[in-house]
C-alpha cells in the first residue's frame, strides 16, 4: 500500500526528536532490566548449589562407609556461594534503583519499578534465608 505525504500526520522535528528520545529512555531501561535478570540467573544458580551442597553432604553421612565425609568443607563452600549470591543481588538491586532514579530525573518522567527489580528482591530474600539456615544449621521448611 502506498502512502502519500498527505496521508501521514505532519509532525515537527521537535515532536519526532521527543519521540525518539522517549524510546531511547525505554530501551535503556529495558537494557538495565536485562542486566538485572542476568545477575538474577547467576545468583539463583549460586543459591541452588549453595543450599543443596551442604544438604547433600549431610545425607551422605547416613550412607554406610561415608560417615566421615567432611561436611564442614561442604558447608563452607555452600556458605561462600550463598554470600556471593547475596552480594551480587544487592549490587544488582542498588544498580537498578540508581539507574531508574537517574533516568527518571533526566527524562522528567517517573519510571515504575520493574518486575525484574521485584524478582531480584524476592530472590535476595531466599538467598538471605538460605544463608541464615546454613549459618545456624537450621533445617529447611
From TrEMBL:
InterPro entries according to UniProt: DUF202
Pfam families named among the record's database cross-references: DUF202
GO CC aspect terms: endomembrane system
Source species of the chain: Ruegeria profundi
Membrane topology value: Multi-pass membrane protein
Organism phylogeny: Bacteria, Pseudomonadati, Pseudomonadota, Alphaproteobacteria, Rhodobacterales
Subcellular localization: Endomembrane system
Domain DUF202: 27-95
Keyword field: Membrane, Transmembrane, Transmembrane helix
UniProt name for this protein: DUF202 domain-containing protein
Transmembrane segments: 39-61, 73-94, 115-136
Amino acid at each position: 500500500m502506498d502512502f502519500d505525504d498527505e496521508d501521514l500526520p505532519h509532525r515537527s522535528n521537535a515532536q519526532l526528536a521527543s519521540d525518539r528520545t522517549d524510546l531511547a529512555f525505554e530501551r535503556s531501561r529495558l537494557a538495565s532490566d536485562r542486566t538485572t535478570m542476568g545477575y538474577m540467573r547467576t545468583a539463583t544458580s549460586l543459591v541452588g548449589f549453595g543450599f543443596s551442597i551442604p544438604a547433600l553432604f549431610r545425607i551422605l553421612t547416613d550412607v554406610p562407609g561415608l560417615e566421615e565425609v567432611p561436611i564442614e568443607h561442604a558447608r563452607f563452600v555452600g556458605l561462600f556461594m550463598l554470600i556471593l549470591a547475596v552480594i551480587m543481588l544487592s549490587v544488582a538491586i542498588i544498580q537498578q534503583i540508581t539507574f531508574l532514579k537517574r533516568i527518571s530525573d533526566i527524562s522528567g518522567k517517573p519510571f515504575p519499578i520493574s518486575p525484574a527489580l521485584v524478582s531480584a528482591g524476592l530472590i535476595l530474600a531466599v538467598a538471605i534465608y538460605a544463608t541464615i539456615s546454613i549459618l545456624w544449621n537450621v533445617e529447611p521448611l
